[in-house]
Amino acid sequence: MEPIYLNGFAIKVVNGFKVYSDKVIGLKGINMSVPRGIIYSLLGPSGCGKTTLLKSIVGVETLDSGFIHLDAESKMEIGFMPQEINLEKYLSVKEVFSYYGSLYKLSPEIFVQRTTELNAILEIDFHDQMINNLSGGQGRRVSLGISLLHDPKILILDEPTVGLDPILRDKIWNYLLSCLRTKNKTIIMSTHYIEEANQANIIGFMRNGKILKEASPISILTSYNTISLESAFLEICKENLTTKTDASTIKYLGEGTLKNSNFNTVSNNLISKHRIKTIIRKNYNVLSNDVMFYIFTFFLPLILLISLEYSIGGKLKHTNIGVTNYEVDLSSCKHTNFSGCFFNENHKHDLSCSVLNNLRSLDYEFIEYNDKDVALYSVEKTKIYAYLNFPKNFSNSFYQYIDSDKASLRDSTLFSHIDNGNFLIKFQIYTDFSWALEKTFEDALSNCNYKTELMKNINKKVLYGEKVKKVNHIFIGYLLAMSIFYYSSVGSASFMLMEKNDGLMTRSMTAGVTVFDIITSYLITHTLLNSVLIIVLMSISFIIFQYPLENPAVVIDIFFALILISWIGFFYGILCAAISRSSTEVMYLTYGAGSVQLFLGGVIWPIEAQFQIVQYISYNLPASIVGRILVNAIAKGWSLSHPLVMVDVIKTVIYLFIHIAPVVFYKYIKKNIWISHK
Hints:
Layout: E1 9-19, E2 25-35, E3 39-43, H1 50-57, E4 65-70, E5 78-81, H2 93-103, H3 108-122, H4 136-148, E6 154-158, H5 166-183, E7 186-191, H6 194-197, E8 202-207, E9 210-215, H7 217-223, H8 229-239, H9 247-254, H10 273-289, H11 291-311, E10 319-325, H12 351-360, E11 364-368, H13 372-380, E12 386-390, H14 394-402, E13 415-418, H15 423-446, H16 472-501, H17 504-509, H18 515-544, H19 555-579, H20 583-600, H21 612-619, H22 622-636, H23 643-669
Parallel strand pairs: 3-7, 3-8, 5-6, 6-7, 10-11, 10-12
Antiparallel strand pairs: 1-2, 1-4, 8-9, 12-13
Helix pairs in contact: 2-10, 3-4, 10-18, 11-16, 11-18, 12-15, 16-18, 16-19, 16-20, 16-22, 18-19, 19-20, 19-22, 19-23, 22-23
């Protein structure tokens, strides 16, 4: 039984209002009645609200007030062609038709029949061309073909013939008229062409968010005693001078109305397995055609990992140090061998040579200076990084000092001057100098049974991380966590922003797809791709670069932790796309989050060295938590079941749900967040 409110109409809009802001009102109490089995032409200037009205009818936009009723069981019975092409630019024409054919659940036989028919009518003979390589007219023909593909009961076309040549335009009109006669379809189309409107059964004249008049072309021309619809439109506008409508009026008119009462959405479940599989296949085709995606997703993280191995964490090599040695000629030190006890009268050894030879074993290069002031000037101009000055009686004074002559200490003092411009270089040179001196004195005393307790080392026992030999072996955990988070967030944000701004989501939603279908399909695609990336990065780290792994059994734990941080990055990117209007905003949000975690997360400087309140924040950042899980697994062999690691796993899961919640509930805070209003 037909609903009483339709009463023979295919579409009814009653007192519809759409407000974008206090100053921008799209629809102002619009009323529209479209009988079944007719062509209804919506005629009006740009910006009058035609596109907003059509999007509201198909359910892409939602009214702030008013009724929209359609004679349709589900969105599958509606074909919508938006004003923009709104098709995936990295798909071929054939792949686009296949994608929408699958969404509409067309059988292979029906799909071939429909595409063959539409190819002939719309003159589509460029099936293998990519959408982004099509001309404007070719793109609109493909877009119209998609809206006609499933042979819908109701057709809603937003300026379908713009940019088409007159012969093809006439051919399309003849096809639409034949559909009207043979299949009793209802067609609404907006147009700028007044001569096209003449062919419609009913014309709706629209201006400033209102339909001023609905009637057949003949009755309008007769009523206004004119032969031109343009002249009639001008008279209608004069009769209906628009009164000012503000937001307060809309709120008043909206009281007691049934908001957002669109057609029955039977079979349009929140998530559909069939739709998700179809979108995943589409994603695969898009990624196969988008080479830059692979460069960004795979090669950049690999470059980052290789950069860590070959450019960060290594010791200084072939560093120039200035030397003035008043004790012995510098060239003779290369052949000096230390043996025997230096207290033996027949023993002759210069300790300055031992110091220099120990430094030479660490790949330092020496430049001899005869003038101390020249050497210091070279340090100041960064020609050398440090300068050592050995006094004439350096060794003898040390022997006397060991023999309890404290006064001789000043004669054995080694003068050094180190460039303080780079803290890390200064720290390593200072550490190496200290080691070279300690080893020299230890070697000197080792052959003599004399006060060796002075050089006794601290007894050190390594509890964890015995295989860790350089800082990279620790950095790798944080690097993997932060790079996976960053690239996941950028990837998901880019895809969802493209879906929103290019109108791809709008187009898919008119075919029954929901936002959750799209997010779920991207999450599955993202997880599969990231799994491959994680395996590649781990293989390079632990097999090729041979980073130490205390317990090989924790490889699965490392993989799981990286998947968790990739999901957090994924949903953070989704949220960025939801609140952003452009790729620039997305870049700032994703890069900002990545940079904050990089600087505060313990990679550049230990968290323990930060201010206490900053420590608490840094310690609990997502990438810091996962980085800590990875470091504990790599250096200590702790699995996810370890009590301390389990706490971090729980924190990570909480972070995941914190990022999922806004994505799920944001639509209740702000309507139409995934709809572009360009």
